[in-house]
Amino acid sequence: TKTEIVEFKNEGKLSGKVRLVYDKKSQDMNVQPSEFTIEPDEISKVEISLKASEPDFVRRLIEVHVDGQDKVRNIDVNATSVEHHLSIVFEEGGGQKSSLNFGTLYM
C-alpha cells in the first residue's frame, strides 16, 4: 500500500465544497476525506491510498467536482507494483539461505 497526501488550496474569496468521485467498488484505492469544504485561503489535505495485490501497473482516476465550477478536473493516480525478493548468499559458497541461526541471544 502506498499513501500520498494531496493538498487543495482555496485561492478564491468564497468557501467551496469539493467532492472527489472515484470507483468505490474497487477495493484497491481509498480517498479520505472524499467530500470537504475549503474556506478562502485555507488548505485541506486529502489522503489517497493505493493498494496492489499483484505485480502490475495500476491506474485509477479521481474526478474533482467543485461547487460553482462547471469544469471537472481529474487526478490521475498510477503506480507500478513490483515483486520483491530477498536472498542471502554467502561468498564462500553454499547457495542461497532462507534462514540464519544466531544461537542464544542475551539482553
Write up this protein.
With 107 residues, the chain is mainly beta. The chain has one domain: Immunoglobulin-like. The chain is 0% helix and 50% strand. It has strands at residues 2-9, 16-21, 29-32, 35-38, 43-50, 56-66, 73-81, 88-89, 96-97. The strands form 3 sheets. Strands 4-2-6-7 form a 4-stranded antiparallel β-sheet, with no helix packed on it. A 3-stranded antiparallel β-sheet has the order 1-5-3, with no helix packed on it. A two-stranded antiparallel ribbon has the order 8-9. The two termini are 34 Å apart. The mean pLDDT is 89. This is HYDIN/VesB/CFA65-like Ig-like domain-containing protein. It is found in: Cell projection, Cilium; Cytoplasm. InterPro entries: HYDIN_VesB_CFA65-like_Ig (IPR053879), Ig-like_fold (IPR013783). Keywords: Cell projection, Cilium, Cytoplasm. Pfam families: HYDIN_VesB_CFA65-like_Ig.
Task: Give keywords.
107 residues; mainly beta; Immunoglobulin-like; four-stranded antiparallel sheet; elongated
Write a concise synopsis of the structure shown.
It is found in: Cell projection, Cilium; Cytoplasm. This protein has 107 residues and is mainly β.
What order do the helices and strands come in, and which of them pair?
Blueprint: E1 2-9, E2 16-21, E3 29-32, E4 35-38, E5 43-50, E6 56-66, E7 73-81, E8 88-89, E9 96-97
Antiparallel strand pairs: 1-5, 2-4, 2-6, 3-5, 6-7, 8-9
The CATH topology assignment is: Immunoglobulin-like
Secondary structure: helix percent: under 10%
Largest sheet: 4 strands, antiparallel
How many structural domains? 1
Provide mean pLDDT, rounded.
89
Shape: elongated
Strand pairing plus helix content: what structural class? mainly beta
> In order across it, which strands form the biggest sheet?
4-2-6-7
Range of strand content: over 45%
Q: Give the SSE string.
A: EEEEEEEEE
- How many beta-strand runs? 9
The radius of gyration computed from the alpha-carbon positions, rounded to a whole number of angstroms, is 23 Å
- CATH architecture assignment: Sandwich
Measured between the Cα atoms of the first and last residue, the distance is 34 Å
CATH top level label: Mainly Beta
Total helical segments: 0
Q: Can you identify the CATH superfamily?
A: Immunoglobulins
Extract low-pLDDT stretches.
none
